[in-house]
Every structure is written in structure tokens, then in C-alpha cells.
Write a structure and sequence with these properties.
The protein is an alpha/beta fold. The chain contains 13 helices and twelve strands. It has a six-stranded parallel sheet, with helices on both faces. A six-stranded mixed sheet has the order 7-8-9-10-12-11. Helix 4 links the parallel strand 4 and strand 5. About 40% of the residues are buried. Its EC number is 3.1.13.3, 3.1.3.7. GO terms for molecular function: 3'(2'),5'-bisphosphate nucleotidase activity; nucleic acid binding. It comes from Arcicella rosea.
């Protein structure tokens, strides 16, 4: 971390702190926020976690989840804005551009609070006084764990904190399958297990707590909405707004579906394209050296990691988005066909 000693001094006396994440936080974003909150509370700070939106129910088990404020809750919007305006420090976790917090961006930008950005995504904006940014890190939760160790506060790590951090590391590594799973990641997980975290239980809470409706939705998407383009080694899924309503889709229900495309022999890139009320949202996944973040940033107003990125289109609809996606594939055909798998 840059200016580690100055940061240590900053958090050595009690402060009013707000912690936030990117819009639609996943396990890494929320786990990092709640894990950091648990640590900072032990140092005497007053902590509020405010997320820009809701998040999946399969994350509700995390310790102190009940204290999280959803900025989209208009009944609490005034309280949220007051907390942001009066904060001494605002931690920005698992994102590196203020646009990623949507409606919260202006209040956070206008706050006089010291901003601290901790993230592992590419192309960070220069909005924070302190930053701990490493694109080689497997997860933001990994960076939170490392920062606590760097500060010499390993003794403050407990089961509740480490449950949250483990959830972030486990999910962002694809259950330790992605290339970002380094020896350092396994050593951190070993430390977490020695602290007493039941890693099997966390895996079940996240991956084995679905609903019958979600399983029916998954089955429908896999059987009816999968398109394979062997000439490009690409698979993609589309989901309409009507289909989301038909299956009573909830936040998080489309999460992970894109990964099924990569289970198909020969497929290098998988994409899911979902028609949401606010925009057409896209998730990209790839294997080996094929970088989907370049496609996401160049054509779909997005970005992320080399093998896992997101994007969107606005104002053109689902059908036109699919046409645009298929239209750019010839540009990447040679690269896709060259990937050894």
C-alpha cells in the first residue's frame, strides 16, 4: 500500500467510517466490506457499510449483514447521504471508478472524507488519497487480509472476519480454479482455516442454497437459450426481461450461468446477455490468455479482469446487442482459434 505509515496513523484513532462497494455487490465486494468493518470496529471506529444496491440472498449469512444499508432504499436515502457527508473516511472496495457506485457517486465525490480505494480491477481512477491496488490479486478480500497483516494486526483476525474474506477469495477464484489462484492465495486460505473457519459450510451457503425457481430458470437457460459458435469457439446465452419475470428472477439468479459455457469442449469465451430495465447487461468469461476485458472495454462500456469482465449497452435493446457482439467476433477469430485448450 502507498503511504502505509500515514494510513496506519490515520486509522489509529477512532473515526466515523463509511465502507462501500460496487453496484450489485458479489461475495468479494460484500465479504471485503464486512470483513474490513469487523476489523475496524475492533480498533474502535464507528462503521457503516452502505451498498449502492441490493445483493443476492445467498450472501445474507455473512456476519453483520443485517446492519448493511442499501442506498436504493429511499426511506434510508437521507440517512445514507448524511453518513457519507459526515464521514471522516470512506473506503471504496472492489471498484476503482466512481461510476461503479452509480447514484452514490456524487455524494461520495462531494464528501470531504478521506477516500481509501482497495481493489484488484484494471485502469483505476485517481480519486483516493490512499490506495491499495493490485491487478494480480485474486480478490479484494485477499488485499484486505494482506493489509491487516501489513499493519501488524493479525491478532485481530477472528472467525467472523475471516468467514467474510474467505467467501470473497473462494468465489473470485472460481473455487480456486482460476489462474489468479497463486501460492499466496493458498497460504492465506490456510491461515484462515487455522483461525477456525469452516470452509465447507461457506461453500454450501453460497452454492447450495438455491431455490426451486432458480433451478427451473437455470434449466431453461441451459436447454433453450444456449448458442454455440464453433467457428469462433464461443458460447453465449441471452435472457429477455420477460423471461426474468416468468421465472420470478431475483438478484443473483443469473450469477454463474455464464461459466457453464466454458464447460463445453473447445469453447474459449462464454457470454451471457441479459435484458435489464436499466440496460442490457453482459458478463464475459474466458480461458487461458484470451482477454475478455479488452472486448468489454472497447465495445461494451465495461471492463474487469482478463478472464472475467462485465459490460452493457444502453438504448439499443437485446437483439441489437447480440448483433453487435456477433459482429465483432471476426476481429478476434484468429486469437480465439489459437488458444490451446
Amino acid at each position: 500500500m502507498q503511504n502505509l505509515e500515514a494510513f496506519r496513523e490515520l486509522i489509529n484513532t477512532p473515526k466515523k467510517i463509511v465502507i462501500t462497494t460496487h453496484f450489485k455487490p458479489d461475495a468479494d465486494a460484500l465479504g471485503s466490506a464486512l470483513g474490513l468493518a469487523g476489523y475496524l470496529r475492533k480498533k474502535g471506529h464507528h462503521i457503516t457499510v452502505i451498498t449502492p444496491s441490493d445483493y443476492p440472498k445467498f450472501l445474507f449469512w455473512m456476519p453483520n449483514n443485517e446492519e448493511v444499508i442499501n442506498y436504493e432504499d429511499y426511506k434510508l436515502r437521507g440517512k445514507s447521504n448524511k453518513l457519507i457527508a459526515e464521514a471522516d473516511i470512506i473506503f471504496c472496495l472492489d471498484f476503482s471508478a466512481l461510476s461503479r457506485i452509480e447514484a452514490m457517486a456524487d455524494p461520495v465525490k462531494q464528501s470531504d472524507a478521506i477516500k481509501v480505494m482497495i481493489d484488484h480491477h484494471t485502469f483505476p481512477e485517481d480519486f483516493a488519497q490512499f490506495s491499495y491496488h493490485d491487478t494480480k490479486a485474486a480478490a479484494t478480500a485477499q488485499l484486505i487480509f494482506q493489509l491487516i497483516v501489513l499493519l501488524g494486526d493479525e491478532s485481530l483476525l477472528d472467525v467472523a472476519i475471516c468467514e467474510c474474506l474467505y467467501a470473497g477469495i473462494m468465489t473470485d477464484t472460481g473455487s480456486f480454479r482460476h489462474p489468479s489462484t497463486t501460492p499466496a492465495v493458498h497460504r492465506i486460505v490456510a491461515d484462515i482455516m487455522e483461525i477456525g473457519v469452516n470452509t465447507n459450510l461457506i461453500h454450501r451457503r453460497i452454492y447450495d442454497s438455491t431455490t426451486a425457481e432458480r433451478l427451473n430458470f437455470l434449466g431453461y437457460v441451459l436447454s433453450e437459450k444456449l448458442v454455440i459458435l464453433p467457428e469462433y469457439r464461443v458460447a453465449y446465452f441471452t435472457v429477455t426481461e420477460e423471461e426474468l419475470k416468468r421465472f420470478n428472477s431475483q438478484t443473483g439468479d443469473t450469477e454463474g450461468i455464464v461459466n457453464y459455457g466454458l464447460q463445453i469442449e473447445g469453447v474459449v469465451m462464454s457470454v451471457i446477455i441479459v435484458d435489464r430495465p436499466e440496460a442490457v447487461k453482459m458478463s464475459f468469461r474466458s480461458v487461458e490468455e484470451f482477454a475478455v476485458n479488452q472486448i468489454a472495454s472497447k465495445y461494451f462500456s465495461g471492463g474487469g479482469h482478463k478472464n472475467a469482465s462485465g459490460g452493457k449497452t444502453s438504448g439499443i435493446g437485446l437483439e441489437a446487442t447480440v448483433e453487435k457482439f456477433i459482429g465483432i467476433l471476426p476481429e478476434y477469430q484468429a486469437e480465439l482459434l489459437a488458444v490451446p485448450i
